Amino acid sequence: MKLTEVTIYTLKMRMKSPFVTSFGTVREKTVLVIKAKDESGVIGWGEGVAFDVPWYTEETAKTTLHMLEDYLIPMLLHRELAHPNEVNTLFQSIRRNNMAKAAIEGAVWDIYAKRNHQPLYQAIGGVNNQIDVGVSIGIQSNNETLFEMIEKRLAQGYKRIKVKIKPGHDIDVVGAIRERFGQILLMADANSAYTLADLSVLKQLDAFDLMMIEQPLAYDDLVEHAELQKAIKTPVCLDESITSLADMKRAVTLGSCQVVNLKIARVGGLTEAKKIHDYCVAHHIQLWCGGMLEAGVGRAHALAISSLPGFTMPGDTAASSNYWYEDIIEPEVTVENGQITLLEQEGIGYRVKEELLKEYAVNVKKID
Fold it and tell me: Among 164, 233, 353, 365, which one carries the catalytic annotation?
């Protein structure tokens, strides 16, 4: 296959409710939608999921756009590709910028699956067409509001609840959830809000039988997470610290975690995510797929990776309606009895509503 043109839609999408974490609040999300076309007219879709502010990784929506326009897309246009794995190899000359890489690589994978008349999840080696899902709930102003949200999500069938914590908003909150809801599947996400100086607090979480504590320490740390994992019973889950297969190998060697939240965008695309998946399976590290407040295209890719056999824990790929008044795909992603059933249509399986892209777009750039 050979890409002949790529169009980048820069969208502004208002969230149904603000999403609050230890590092900030998201009310409106910039979404980059990538439409790639090959020489035979097959169209593939990808999504850039970086935030406007570099608080999750160093990337932003603007830097993603810059890298796509000036480097990554020109490297791919009119180049013969036998397989999407070649994109991962080609991009190795560009340091990091993983979310930009994942955005265009995702579109290439979509084209490849369509050319081979396969659903994307099967094209990448997925085996599970029903995905168990949980939901992530941001920091709330009071416990009653938090309880209402948990009750609503449990009633909708979500199989796991993730709550955001930060210093001063942790032990009491998790304890109150346990008292109110008993032994639901519960995990806490710290978004790097703690240090080893907080070890006495983190040890207290052991009393609540959490599935895991996600990324408690620095976003780029592996060494201190290993020290923390030795000191607490609660499984440590790494998120931001794992940006490549090399990071994953170091984490296993050090004993930095028992679980990994594997996000396609954070590691540079589906190809690298598959490599990390295979390594984790071989080394008995549990996996689940996190969310980046994606719109429909990014959510479709996340569902595809979640179909690989190593994803044994409910992910954050919740229904479209949790986040958006109207998603950019149809049908929208829906959850029934805590599961999402993958579509069997070719590629990502969903139709992208290009009329809605035009409505949400603040900029459109065609590169050929």
Answer: 164
